[in-house]
Amino acid sequence: MPTYAGHLYDTIVCFGDSLTQHGWDVTKNGWTAQLARTYLRKLDIVNRGFSGYNSRHGRILLPQILPPAVSDSERRSGKHKGSQLRLLVILFGSNDAQFAPYKAHVPLNEFRSNIEHMVRLVQSPTSACYSETTRVVLVTPPPVAPELFAQSQAEKKMPIDRNSQTTHLYADAVRAIAREQQVPCVDLWPAMEKTPEDFLWDGLHLNARGNDILFKLVMQTVRDSFPELDPESIPFVVPHHEQLYKTTSDIDQSLCL
Which residue among 18, 55, 131, 164 is the active-site one? Predict the structure, then answer.
């Protein structure tokens, strides 16, 4: 299944677990919803978040989500008519960091291998999904708020199956991969580590403040690392309505991109 079947708008794909899936929740200022508002009529935001999934699942899914490789020469020649994936944001680790032997647990070394593989899918010239123009941003899993999480799990009659100490190891792995692969990393820990309960509604998932922090850090990272993707520098794909009402031929020409 392709990322996006149309060709009018290029895309930003946000890929991850429930922290990404819930990013559409406007009642909690969802971070991907904020991205969609920010890039309205400029880039399409594709939310590919899967609640309960880990990096093992993501490694299998990502090649089916990414568009096939297209060379720069094909794009310049005009032979390729698909949309272009401009940015891939990857956020896994919260479920991987579940204690063994719980079902979502992925050993740290395997987690690291999975995230490295996802980055290489886009960046390696030998990959079937290689794109020389797609940028990648990694995001660390946030800390766990212990008291909130314990309360939430007790209400669901479920065990305490993860904590900040273990999740921190997975966040460290994401930071290390970002350095080694030379891609930017959005690190949620400096903002959230001291008082995680202020940013998580159930001790695990982002509340409105948490989503605001993630959105702002993603935008800051984009502006610092990929200024060409700053929404302020990207024009509308189709013209403003005031430019349309001249003559019928002008309308036809301006809308045929």
Answer: 18
